[in-house]
Amino acid sequence: MIKSVIIDDELHCQETLTLLLKEYCPQVQVLQQCRSAKQGLEAINKLNPQMVFLDIEMPVMNAFEMLEQFNEISFAIIFTTSYDQYAIKAIRFSALDYLLKPIEPNELIRAVTRVQENRHLPDAEQFQMLLKQIHGNTTGFNKVAVPTAEGFELISSDQVLYCEANDNYTHFYLKNKTKIIACRTLKEIEEQLMDFKFFVRVHNSFMVNLNEVTKYVRGEGGYLVMSNNSSISVSRSRKDSLLKFF
């Protein structure tokens, strides 16, 4: 069993999540439901949970302020939130997990499964990235947090040639001829990299770094030739939007 704590100031959200976990993720045991960050801090220190479902928007102390109270994070975190574009952007950027309210069962299953399969805790650097994003201290920062089975890797965005979908994983192809397998779908990676304007989705299976494109070859959709001589297919539906960049 995965011992967990739910921290959310809205009672109906606590109850809904508890019911969803009971029905769709029976391997998760809810030890306590907390109505505030202060109660959450006390529960975490007392119960030592393996996983915390943490609402972002709470009165007095929000989720990020609560996390700053810990010297070390010894539990997996799944943020829960109503649509908050700025917070979601920061969470995506640091490669942490979140669920949008109202929570969809399939999304909940996927988030819990990811925690189980990866078997690693968030790294201190991920939280530093997250908090820098939240506090707006990101000047000149161009690295990407790529979640892997072992944890995550920080790579410079300009070192990425292209990304390729592989079911629930994404392969990052780098300039140094290495490949990193990310534990995220290409759609999730696309959302994570949306602020880097030179990354463009050109196909259901591919996203490319436009700075590394050397040639476009016409066709029904055509294809791109990258700086490492790889050929990347362009889907017909994405062809026009791609060509606008050129």
From TrEMBL:
Instruction: Report the PROSITE patterns cross-referenced here.
Output: HTH_LYTTR, RESPONSE_REGULATORY
Q: What is the lineage of its organism?
A: Bacteria, Pseudomonadati, Bacteroidota, Chitinophagia, Chitinophagales
SUPFAM superfamilies according to UniProt: CheY-like
User: Know the name of this protein?
Assistant: Response regulator transcription factor
Q: Which GO terms describe its molecular function?
A: DNA binding; phosphorelay response regulator activity
Q: Which InterPro entries match?
A: CheY-like_superfamily, LytR-like, LytTR_DNA-bd_dom, Sig_transdc_resp-reg_receiver
SMART domains this protein is in? LytTR (SM00850), REC (SM00448)
Output the superkingdom of the source species: Bacteria
* Keywords of the record: Phosphoprotein
Specify the HTH LytTR-type domain's residue ranges.
144-246
List the PANTHER family hit by this protein, alphabetically. Answer: STAGE 0 SPORULATION PROTEIN A HOMOLOG, TRANSCRIPTIONAL REGULATOR-RELATED
Q: Does the keyword Phosphoprotein apply?
A: yes
Q: Which residue ranges does the record assign to the Response regulatory domain?
A: 3-116
List residues, modification 4-aspartylphosphate: 55
